[in-house]
Predict the 3D structure of the following.
Amino acid sequence: MKKLIVLLAVLSLPLVALPAFAAQVRVFVADMNAIGVPNKDEMKATLQALLAARLNSDKIIAVGSAAEADAVVSGTYIVLGKVFSMDAMARTSAGKTLTRAYIQGDSSEELIPSVGKLAEKLAAELDKVYFSGQPAPGAPVAAIPGVAAAVTAATQTPLAAPKSDIIKKEQVSVAPVGEFIKPKETEQGNTGGWQSKRLTGAANLVALGDTLPDGSREVFLAEDRRLSYYRKGGTMKLVAETEFRSSEKILSLDTITGSKGLEIYVTLIRGDELASQVWQVQGDKLVKLAEDLSYFFRTFSLAGGPKKLYAQAMGRDADFYGEVFEATRSGNEISLKNPIKMPRFGDIYSFNQFRDQDGKMFTVVINSDGYLIVYDQDRKELWRSNDRFGGSELYFQKEDTTVNARVTGDKYRWIFMNMRIQVTAGGLILVGKNDGFWVLGNARAYKKGTVYCMAWNGSTLEEKWRTRDTQNYMPDYYFDEARNELLILQTVQRPGITTRGASSLAIKKVE
C-alpha cells in the first residue's frame, strides 16, 4: 500500500492542468477522508492531489484554498478487503449541494482510472451548473473545518513590519565592548514610492514606454489576450487597448526605441506556432506595425550594456531552438546577428550575462526547477543556488503525443515562462521570486513575490538587498535603472467566470 501511495503521488504531479484561454470554474478539493487504509494522512493528501489533477480541464481549474474557490469538493475513500469505493460531493458557498458522484473498484490497481471516472462525473455536473445558463453561485465558499484553521494560522502569524520596501542584507558589525561579532540588521531608509489603484484585468506582463512632455509616463500591461496602454501621472489612466483572438496568447511584452519612435514587441503564440507582433503608440491609439513574426522577442541590457532587441526561434521538437541573436526589424522582416550560444537550461527568457571586477564574462540562468546557475565563458557550471527563484503562472503548450502523452497521459507539454533577469551597469543582478503554498505539477497558485538584488563575489551570488514580500502573486517586475525605480506588478484578483480579474502596479524608489 505504501508503494501505491508513492506511485500515486508521483503520477499525479504532471497530470495537473491549468486553463487554456478562457475563464473557468475555480474548484478547491479538500482532504479526502480515508477509511480502512494504512498511512491515512498520506493517502488523503495523495487522493486530494490526484482528484484535483483529474478535475482540471478547459472549464475547471483547481485552486489552492477554499477562500478563492467557486465550489468546494469533499469526499470519502473506503476500503473493505480488496474492494474500495469513493464518493465525492461539490457544494456552493451557501452549503447547497451541487452534485454527488460515486465510483467503486475491485482492487487498488483500479484506483487511478477510478479517480479519473469520478472526476469526469463531477465535471459534467459542474458544467451543467456553471455553463448551461443555470444561475451559478457567486458568494465566497464557506470555509471547511481544518482548512479554515490552517489558512487562519498561516495568515495570522505575527510578523515584524519592515520600515522600508527595500531591505538590505544583514551586515556584521563589531560590538563596542568585548570580542564578539554580532549581526546587525540595517534597513534602507524609505525614500518614497507610489501605488496604483485597482486596475481592471489580471495582467501578466509590464513594460515601460516614453516619458511624455507633461511628465507622465507610458506604461503597457498585457493579459493573456489583451494589450493595454496607460499613462501614469498622479494616477494610471487607460488610454487605449486591443484584444487578440481567442486562439492567441501573449507570452512576453517588451519595448525599445526604433528608428521611428518607441516600438512595442508582443510575443504571441497562435495554437502551437509563434505569430508575434509589433505595435506603436500614435496619438491616443495603438497601431500595428508588423505581424506573424516567427520569433520569441525580449529586450534587455546584456551584461549591463545598452538595451537591445533579441530574438530566438522555436523548433518543432524544441521549445526554444538554437542561439539567441541580436535582432533588427524592417517591416515584417527580422535580421539576426551576433549569436549568443546558450549554456544548459538557457533560453531567451531565462538568462543574462554579467562581468566581474576583472572584466570576465559570466552567464546566469534560471533553470526549469527555479535554481540560479552561474556559468563561465566556456559554459561550465560554477555555482548553483540553494534557494529557488523565479516562479510564473504564465505558460504555453505544445502538442507532444509521443513521450509526454505516454508518460503523463496529457498530449500537451506545458512550458512555463521565466521571470526576467536584469543586470545593471554596475554588475548587480536582479531576479524575482514567487512563493506559494500550493504549487503542484502544472497547477500553480503563487501567493507572494520578492525582488532580489545580488552581486558576484568571485565564488557565489551574494544578496545585497531585497524588497519586502508582496501580498499577492507578482507576475512581472521591471527595474528602471535611469530613475532607480522598481516597478512591481501584482495580481490582486485572478480572472473568473464573469470577471477579467484585477492588478495593481507599485513603484519603489531604490538607492
In short: The chain has a mean pLDDT of 83. Residues 297 and 311 are 5 Å apart (CA to CA).
